[in-house]
Description:
Blueprint: E1 2-9, E2 20-26, H1 58-73, E3 82-85, E4 91-97, H2 101-116, H3 129-144, E5 162-166, H4 171-184, E6 189-192, E7 196-199, E8 202-206, H5 212-219, E9 226-230, H6 233-238, E10 246-251, H7 267-274, H8 276-279, E11 281-290, H9 294-297, E12 306-311, H10 318-325, E13 329-334, E14 337-342, E15 345-351, H11 364-379, H12 384-393, E16 406-410, E17 413-418, H13 423-437, E18 447-451, H14 459-472, E19 475-479, H15 490-503, H16 507-510, E20 515-516, H17 519-527, H18 529-538, E21 546-551, H19 556-566, E22 569-570, H20 575-580, H21 584-589
Parallel strand pairs: 5-9, 5-10, 6-9, 10-11, 11-12, 12-13, 17-21, 18-19, 18-21, 19-20
Antiparallel strand pairs: 1-2, 2-4, 3-4, 6-7, 7-8, 13-14, 14-15, 16-17, 16-22
Amino acid sequence: MRVIEIRLLEGPNVYRLEPVAKVEVAIGRRRTWYGQRNPARHALVRLGQAVPARDWPDDVAALAAWLKRLRADHGSGRAGLVVHRSSDPGHWIVTFPWSAAGRAQVIAEAAVGLVERNVSPARTARLTGGQARLLARWAARIGAADTTAPTWIRDADRRIPVVSISGTNGKSTTTRLISHIFVVAGRHTGTTTSDGVLVDERMVDPGDWTGPGGAAQILGRSDVEVAVLETARGGIVLKGVGYESNDVSVLTNVTSDHLDLQGIHTLPELAEVKATICRITKPEGWVILNGDDPFVAAMARRVRARVAFFSIASRPPMVVARQLADGGRAYLLRRDILVEVDGGRTTEIASVAELPITIAGLARHNVANALAAAGGARALGATIEQVRRGLIDFRPSSERSPGRLNIYRLGNRIVIIDFAHNEAGTSAILDVAEGIAGGAAGRATPITVIIGTAGDRPDDSLRGIGRIAAERAQRVAIKETRNYLRGRTRESIVGELLAGVRSAGTPAAQAPVPVYESETAALHAELNGAAASEAARTGARPDAPRIVVLMCHEEREAVFALLAELGARPLDLGSELTELIPRLQDRRRR
C-alpha cells in the first residue's frame, strides 16, 4: 500500500457536503490511467459513490478499521467513514468527517502508519512489544494535536444571498454579467473571479480568488448585499467549497480541461466535481443548468433545489422540452430573442442584437452565457427589466471583462484577445473570428491565431488546440507561457501543440509555425514583421486586412499596453462591427 495523499477538505466537496479528511492510497503495482474521456456506462466511476465493504482490498479494510478505532478512542466520532473508488488504477479513497484539524490529520497518518507496519486493528489482537509502543506513540501524538475547527462559513453566520457559478468555459463571463445586472439595479455586489475580488465591479484584491479564500473575503464584508462567486475546480478539489450552502447555482458547461489532475480523468468525473455547487443549493433555491450539455443537464437528478435550464438550441433538447411540458422554467433563444419561459408563460428579455457581448450573435457562447446569467439573476430576485438593462449595458471591454473577447482595430487589422485556454474555448473564439472574417460579397479576411496554454493539460488537449487552430485559421503561431509550465518542459508543451497543428493536414499545418517566447513578442511580431514575411510568401500586401487572435494568459496587461502603444483602439461593437460585416445589418433590423 502506497500513500498518495492525506488532505483535509474544509467545506462541501465531491465526497460529502461537509468537511472531510481524505486519505488516498494505491494498492498493487504502479499503473497509469488510460481510457476514454467519456467512458461507457460499464467503465464509469462516480467519485462520490460509496463502495461496499465486501469490495474493499484487505489493506483498505485495515485502513478503514484503524480510522474507525482511532476516531472512537480520541473523541472524534464513530460514524461517517466511507470508502470510494478512483478511476486511477488501484487507487482507493477513504473519507471521514472532521471537526479538529490537527487531530484528524494525525489520525489519518497514524492509521496509514499502523497498516504499513501490519498492526492488526482488532482490539482483541495480541500486539508485540514494538507494535504496542508504536500504537502508544501515535496515541500520544493524536492527544497532543491541535483542534482547530474548519474554516467554512456556516449558514448561521452568512447574512447575504449567494449565487455560485462554475463550469469549464464561460464561468468568469457569466459571473461578471450577473454582477453587472445587480450593480446596474443598484445592489452593492461582491464578486470573486479568476481576476480578483471586486466590490461593485471595482477591483479590491487582484489574483485568482475562485476558491474558498475569495468567498470568505466577500462573505465577511459588511458593505455588500449580494455575493456572486465564481467557483473553480481547483478550489473544490483542494480545499472544498468555502461555505455551507448557496441560494442559487449556475453550471455553464463541462468540456475537456484540467483533466489528469488530482485523479480526475473523465468528463463525467469533472462534471461531478463542478456540480458540488449545485448539490449545496438550498431546497428553496434554484439550480441553473445548461440543457444543451448532457453532462450538466444530468445533474438535475442529483440536486435538492428547483431546476431551470438554459438552451441556445433551435429545438431544445428533450430534457428541456420535458421541463417546459411540466410547466417548469427555462431560458431560451427564440428568433434571436432571449426569453424566459415559466409555467407556460413566455416573457421576452432582450434581443441578441441589443447585447454587445454577443457581437450581434457571432459569439454564440456568449449568447449562452447571457441566458445563464439571466437565469442566475432572476433566481436571486432580479426583475426582467433589471436583467434586460444589465445585459444591454455590459460591454466586453478590457476594463470590465479583461481577456474575454476584447476586440481592437489597428488599421486594416482586427485583434481579438481572449483567454481561450482549451479546445472548446479555441473553437468559440474562432467562431467569432470567422464571423468577422466573412466580410461581404464572399471576400474573406485571413485569420492568424496565436496559440498556447498552461502545461497542466493532457497531451490530447494540447494537440486538440493545435489541430483546431490549423483547421480553421490561415496562419498559426505558438507563444510560450513560461510562468505556467506546471510540471512540463517548454519543449513538451510546444511539441504537443505543434503535433496537433501538423495533424490537421491543411495549408496552415504545412506552413512554417513560428514559436515566440512570450505573448507580447508573439503579438508584436504577428502585427509587424511577420506580416511582411507572410506577404512575401503568399504575394499579399503587407498592410492587407487580417484578423489576429491571441490566446492570452500571462501577459494580459502588457498586451493591452502594447496595443495602445501601436495605436490600436477598442472596436465599437455597434456601428463599427456592422460596418465591418455588412451582412449583420439585416440581423440587427430584425
